[in-house]
Amino acid sequence: MIYVQILLVSLGCLFFIVGTLGLLRFDDAYSRIHAITKADNLGLGLLVLGILPSALSVPQGLKLILIWVLVLAASATASYLIAHYIKQHQLSKLPHGARPDTTADGQDAEPDPTNERGPQ
Amino acid sequence: MNLAFDIVLGLALLLTALGVFSSKDLFRAVVMFIAFGLLLALVWVRLDAPDLALAEAAIGAGLTGVLMIDAVAHLSANTLQNDQRDDQYDHSPKRPLWLPVISCVGLFVLLLGAIRFRPEASVSLPDMVRDNIAESGVEHPITAVLLNFRSYDTLLEIAVLLVAVVVAMALKPAAEDRVHQPPPAHDPILHGLTARLLPAMLLVGMYVLWAGSYMPGGAFQGGAILAAALVFLQLAGFAVDRYAASLLRLGLALGFLVFLTVAVSVMIGGRPFLTYPEGFAGQLIFFIEAMLTLSIGLILFSLFSQNPPHSGAVGHQGANHDQ
Amino acid sequence: MTSDLWFALMGVALIALAAFTFFRQVHLLRRILAFNIMGSGVFLVMVGMAQHQRETDPVPQALVLTGIVVAVSATALALIIFRRFYSVSGQVELDEYQIEEPTQNEDHASDTMKDNINSLQDALQSDDEAPAKPSASKGDQ
């Protein structure tokens, strides 16, 4: 059992690493959202699944699952909101092209508040 | 193994703080600051302080982050219009470097010295707390310290919060009270999530308050969760602050008033200020805590909602540019 | 080396770095950020040093809990004051020689103090938010 758990947790960590890498490396906001949701959903799901057999009691296990469900709901909504905002303001490619110095910043999905001068 | 994890965690904390300090872009600094708050919550867990972790996660990472992002968005909504200012934002002025360097190094050396030559404690506070906790009326030591042993602190703290929110209200432009503000946009998905999550958030807040008498939790954490729920509600487009303004104002003062009333009314029985009669301490503490939770939640929410709305400005700005 | 001591040392480093930033930066929002982080450093030192080679101590933890809540209210108040300051003066920093620059809707000749009072009164009475004023003179994009 312990090996299965180790495998699951390692896989979950792998998804987190891949998701973070995608967040840092992808060009436009949509791809970044795509990458980060992989980390949230699959990575956290695998982690929870891996830890679940070690839960001391049934309520504790249920809480772990509840955490995952809540994160799923929250991240889905947040992704939708970010994507919606980008679509409304047509900002998808902007942060990358406009300011090459901050491409490594994963949070460029939102418009840059201080330095931004508009889409073009 | 644990120490190795702590060292990595501490270094991550330091690096995030460096990121806050050094990033050119203000929004990025704020995002780094939120990450800093989350890491700090983890640090509190490692320091065996789950109460602090709860409060930090809800306040340090949550509420402060929302406030800062709100301020940055407000700034950017107005900055877009006079962009000649942009260049001034991130530069450091041509000021002498020696003052920051000396203060930084001096503080560092002094604090290191203070840590190196730490005086021995003359009394052991944990022992004192443990000896007296049976009389305090609650089982959780931190709640006992906050509401019984050092209740002065808590009384004054809620007074400070009240003063802060009163000042914030005084600074609010009178024009904000007009009714013809555009209603906040309703987003169906956010709306749905809020409607489903809000009962859970309130339940968690109340549970944390209730649990505070025998395990980590209590008025502050519960209040922070309540405030987060209200802020969430406000951001999702429900104009909470306009529905019940007068009730809200009553709630702001309620915690302080109840606390003060209890503190003074025990003096009728010939007791010193802020002591609880035997046998009633537990009930009184829970009653005060419940009122404090409500007040803290409302105060923190009010401090958020006193800010002038700006989302309309951002939208207009984007629309202008798109043309 | 215990983890309590380690986190206290991290707190010291945070305080020193935040102090440096606080003096170096002029942008008020950055100063508020630095001030917050400095407070977190103080909290870390308090809890870490109280627990270093001793048992878990609820008293400093309770004090820090109070401190966290007061810190957020102070931050919120600082942000509100910052916004009012920004809407009145159009500045994001407190440099003395910059305040001398007249704001676009103000009388150039009057001295700084009077300027600020006037614009504050204007802002309190007017219906619009003050930062919208500079845009009025600039017209469309």
Beta-strand content estimate of chain C: under 5%
Query: Helical content of chain C, roughly?
Result: over 70%
Q: Rounded to an integer, what's the Rg of chain B over CA atoms?
A: 23 Å
State the separation between the terminal residues of chain B, measured CA to CA: 58 Å
The greatest interface between two protein chains, and residues involved on each side, is:
B-C, 101 and 90 residues
Oligomer: heterotrimer
Low-confidence stretches of chain C: 99-110, 127-141
Count of structural domains of chain B: 2
* Fraction in helix of chain B: over 70%
Over all CA atoms, what is the radius of gyration of chain C?
Answer: 21 Å
Tally of helical segments of chain B: 13
| Gross CATH architecture of the domain at 3-94 in chain C | Orthogonal Bundle
CATH topology title of the domain at 3-94 in chain C: Helix Hairpins
Taken in chain order, the helices and strands of chain B follow as HHHHHHHHHHHHH
Strand proportion of chain B: under 5%
Which descriptor suits the 3D outline of chain B?
globular
Q: List low-confidence stretches of chain B.
A: 82-91, 311-323
Largest sheet of chain B: none
H/E element order of chain C: HHHHHH
Instruction: Supply the CATH class of the domain at 3-94 in chain C.
Output: Mainly Alpha
| Count of individual beta strands of chain C | 0
Helix and strand topology:
The complex is a heterotrimer of chains A (120), B (323) and C (141).
Chain A: H1 2-25, H2 29-51, H3 58-89, H4 94-98
Helix pairs in contact in A: 1-2, 2-3
Chain B: H1 2-22, H2 26-46, H3 50-79, H4 98-116, H5 125-136, H6 141-149, H7 151-171, H8 188-211, H9 219-235, H10 240-243, H11 245-265, H12 281-305, H13 311-322
Helix pairs in contact in B: 1-2, 2-3, 3-9, 3-13, 5-6, 6-7, 7-11, 7-12, 8-9, 9-12, 11-12
Chain C: H1 3-24, H2 28-51, H3 58-89, H4 96-99, H5 112-125, H6 132-138
Helix pairs in contact in C: 1-2, 2-3
